[in-house]
Amino acid sequence: MTQAQIEIQLVAIVVAASCALPGVFLVLRRMAMMSDAISHAILFGIVIAFFVVGDLASPLLILGAAATGLLTVVSVELLQRSGRVREDAAIGLVFPVLFSIGVIMIARSAGQVHLDTDAVLLGELAFAPFDRLTIAGIDLGPKSLAVMLTILALNVAFIAVFFKELKLATFDAPLAAALGLAPVLLHYLSMALVSITAVGAFNAVGSILVVALMIAPPASAYLLTDRLSRMLVYSVGIGIITAISGYWLAHVLDASIAGSMATMAGVVFGLVFIFAPRHGLLAGVSRRARQKRQFAEAMLTIHLFSHEDSPDSAVECHKDHLIGHLRWPHEHAERVVNQSVSDELITNQNGHLHLTPRGRTMAKEWLVQ
Amino acid sequence: MDLSLSSFFSDYTLRTVALGATILGVTSGVLGSLAVLRRQSLLGDAISHTALPGIALAFMLTGSKAPLVLLFGAAIAGWIATLLIVGIVRASRIKYDSALGLILSVFFGVGLVLLSIIQKTPDARQAGLDKFLFGQASTILAEDVLTMGVLGFIAIVVVLLLWKEFKLLAFDPAYGEVLGFRTTSLDLILTTVLVLAIVLGLQMVGVVLMSAMVVAPATAARQWTDRFGVMMIVSAIVGAVSGIGGAVASSLTPHLPTGPAIVLVAGSIVAFSLLFAPRRGILWNWLKQRQRGRRFQEEAALLDLYALAQQHTGQSHSHTLGVLRAMSAAPAGTRRTLHELHTRGLVASDSSDGWRLTPAGFMEAEKLLREQNVRT
Amino acid sequence: MSSPLALEINDLTVAYHDKPVLWDLDLEVPAGVLMAIVGPNGAGKTTLIKAVLGVIRPAAGSIKLLGEPIEKMRRRIGYVPQHGSVDWDFPTDVLDVVMMGRYGALGWIKRPGKREKDVALQALEQVGMTAYKHRQISQLSGGQRQRVFIARALVQDADVYLMDEPFQGVDATTEIAIVDLLRALRSKGKTVLVVHHDLQTCPEYFDWVTLLNVRKIASGPMAEVFTEANLRKTYGGRTAIYSSINGAPNNQGLAKTAVS
Q: Would you list the domain boundaries of chain B?
């Protein structure tokens, strides 16, 4: 691998890790679409900041854009609190308006600003190695890498310091407030961090990938664990896998790196969605099948139990009667009977069904609850 | 730029764009109402983003850039995306907003990959595809408008036919299920029509801004009416006005892209509606509140003066401002209240800063007392 | 000539995520009764209603309404849900909501017309809400909302009415009005099944009762079935019950019914 390739992947990895961390909380707090809103509204912030500062490379752009993120969040909440607009509608209103203002401002000052709206939305990681950070004449690597490492550090620090508070605020906001942990303040701090991360990241990968990286890895992690700390670690891990595999996919297809990474984010999610051990699709299907079988067996054993000592037990405890009495379709009845036999719950003598001691125990257990 | 009406009709581009924008406004107004009422506002955002891979694939498979073909691809992609979103939510513990954001961004990423692959083919005609990203209203042709018109027509006809079913679906789907209207089927139909409505607008305003076109007209309309049917109509009108307004503004002003212009017009109408719509408007309510407060103070002052007059048996006995202030629950505004009453001819003042009721004032005070007695 | 059963349920079993919610339920409800469905939380009362409505699929068993399988009898069932299930900020008025009860009879695409409006106005009259016909639903009180739901079910012109806690959260006046309405329905020969939470008022309002706790504990005429023994079986002794329910005074310091 060439140095440029390594650097690109490094940037990608750092971006993915930085996005995954705040993304976990967005997903858990059902604010995932805020990432979409903020990353689009950022254009507005950058343009304003640019007009104030006049320099595309200024770090003040990050602050300006981060402020826009907060502006978006606050506007959405104000609209919501007015009682006249629902939260989802508020989001769908605020960011396009801000984005429009940004686009118009760029268009109006055409020629003065080399801010390609395509780049804003789409980004291009491939150019990262060319914009270098030089201090005192020493080449310290791509500028975006330095920026993103700082942002990553910020995210890690924030979560490490406020872990307990974040955990409480995410899962039980009223309790957190009662304990005086100021969930509101925490909320705005984390939103500011989301904005800063989005700004730093979009420069490398564009708005859409920011959304993908903030949602997909945490969503995948959510299907893999029930613990917040693990979810954070898994999200970062999955983000890194996404970044590297995305890069190589782009390499093979000779296609957009950002797009490939977003694609791989989806692929990874799809795999987790299907194969996750407890919350995955396959796991759920097999669990439900098992439950159904248990339940049917329970019904059968209970039915036999409650009728085995009755005078008409010969009729009631016959396989054919199941179809009538329990309204089970023929094949289903056959299957349940055979399963119960193989599970040693009943014996089947020419259609007459008798409970084994084990079957009787099962029936009694079910009846008790 | 010649502003006369005749120039409007003779400017082909403006006419085309304005017509297209109107169709966009009306359809997204109507369908947006249903989406917003069902709390699916962001579904519009998602469907617009997921259109990209559909467009790219349609081009890759057919080699054609005809809008109908591309939009068909966009529609299929949007439709599949919606199914996936619903599927994810139903089959796992992933919540709706996460599923939206996930599918939206992943599909868009796939679209980017496809676009970048297309870009490398010797066929340099790819350039026309990314106009769907930001919308390039100025490049809309009459045949594009025709496509939009047909799609919009279908969408609106479906809504008109299934009017009560959609109303039921939005308001009380459980009850609808009981009545025999399968929610899943209705949902599928509504989603299909929503996809049509969104896809037809992409050329005009682009992927990012389509979300606003779905949400804004409906939100504005809701502030003006409490009736479902009226809301849809107002929403369509707001959409149309935004469309035409944006189109005209864009053609009159240099360097003003159409898509954002339409969105800003729509946004302003929303802001205006939120503030000033009767009964629901924020500022409207605030003004009404102040009015009511003032009316209340005037009535109180009148009754205070009446009570004083009773005590002094002389109708012409006047009382100072200080006395009235002392009796008032809101002393600071007493002078202004008295002036207001003076203007209405209900009190008179004499030279020594004394205030008393006029005969008309007496009648008004007595009327108020009668009303109070009736109420209690 | 024997009157047909309004409802005939055999071996009904409903499971949710493999936990049984209704188990092996046999129930016969004669036509023309006013029946309370009673049981603790989680007893399966709402599930029973939903199964009869056909909106959930049972794991086993069959349900017949007026002698026919329920799939065929949708039009003959009226439904009043629990009040929490709707978006009250929806732009619609009282009359509009009530007319929705006729949508089933109208079928697909057909719009409600004058006839539907008249029927709706009649129903509003019956529930005492005529003055509110054009009131926006967000401006209604809890009791008023309940009445609107009942009116909506009335216009369905059903033979059997299913109501899920219609007295929940309503004021005393509305409660009396609803009881009168139920009695009026009964006198017209309709059958009314009501999930009811207040044991106090059961004997007064209803003439039949089904005691439910995942399984059927007992079902039949109120006087026969609503006994302390049965209630204890239903509630598992977790709640103290007014012993004077059956008229026998008992001052062992038992507290009033509090179904937790």
A: 5-278, 284-375
